[in-house]
Amino acid sequence: MINIAIVGLGFGAEFIPIYQRHPHANMYAICQRNVDKLNEIGNAYGIDKRYSNYDDLLADPDVDAVHINSPIPNHAEQSLKALRAGKHVACTVPMATTVEECMEIVKATKETGKKYMMMETVVYSREFLFVKELYENGELGKVQFLKASHQQDMDGWPDYWPGLPPMHYATHCVGPVAGLLKLEADYVSCFGSGTIREELAKIHNSPFAVESAHIKFRNSDLSAYVYRSLFDVARQYRESFEVYGDKKSFEWQLIEDEQPVIHTAKKPEPEIPEKVTVPDYAKLLPEEIQRFTTKGVYDADEQQHLSFTQGGGHGGSHPHMVHEFLSAIAEDRDPFPNAAQSANWTSVGILAHESALQGGQLIKLPDFGSI
């Protein structure tokens, strides 16, 4: 049994019941600076070990692993502290806010021998698992191109979100295009387009309404195209990815609640596209947590975190991520994505924004796997 501590109880509380039911986990402790919130969640879920100070939590020798759900600016610091305190780390996206921080986390996993997993929802969504199954069964044939988008209206979100450069939160579209074939981004070129209103633009000195990037993959003939928007763009929430093979291709639906399309080569033209129903993949999970692929974790809809409701439930990914993290610890193997993969995906976005500020300049990524 792995003693888990969850840090941050907004979005983080979504995971408590999953850990409580997983056969490898003991939902041991929770951590939140707001003591009233800490006690409210602790009482609701029957968790006795409660910390309002992160350092005190890390000093507890009974904590085996932490699952970090704190604000983005805290991810790198808290991950590094936990690894150096001898804890395994799962962290919500993105890994960090600088390439240097990403490097530090990769180094820390090598030095400590502890596991790190960035909890990227899209690569455990039912849509991704469906396309992965098509690919592994040979139905796509040779993959020729990958594309992904993440468009969201984040007006009204708190704290650090207003004016955030779109590509600084890019892992939801970088993850699936890199993750399907386990590719590593080599270099990136990105263009900014449009402008957001001045009071938002000045916060991060980032004017762009949309950022669109091309990614070239190392030791591969493949490239991918990803685009992001956060403010002042009229678009229903869309977190999509598309894969083009020489036998079949998968295209995301344009409107939520519609169906994606499979295109099959060499059929009569009217028969090439076919709408498909993506199945659920709860069968891949221990029976105790299968229900969480289709049901929200909280009891009432109004309690659910905005990222979960606005993001369509994250494709049923939460129990899959928990299971992968715990299994990697139990089996003493790297999780997917591991630290080097997480650093690569995160750095694509960081460097894509740098490229956009330089008018599309090609920028090479570090080779995190060789650190």
UniProtKB/TrEMBL annotation:
Record Pfam families: GFO_IDH_MocA
Stored InterPro entries: Gfo/Idh/MocA-like_OxRdtase_N, Gfo/Idh/MocA_Oxidoreductase, NAD(P)-bd_dom_sf
Gene Ontology MF: a single term: nucleotide binding
Gene3D superfamilies, per the entry: Dihydrodipicolinate Reductase, domain 2, NAD(P)-binding Rossmann-like Domain
Top-level taxon of origin: Bacteria
Domain Gfo/Idh/MocA-like oxidoreductase N-terminal: 2-118
PANTHER family: D-GLUCOSIDE 3-DEHYDROGENASE, UDP-N-ACETYL-2-AMINO-2-DEOXY-D-GLUCURONATE OXIDASE
Name recorded for this polypeptide: Gfo/Idh/MocA family oxidoreductase
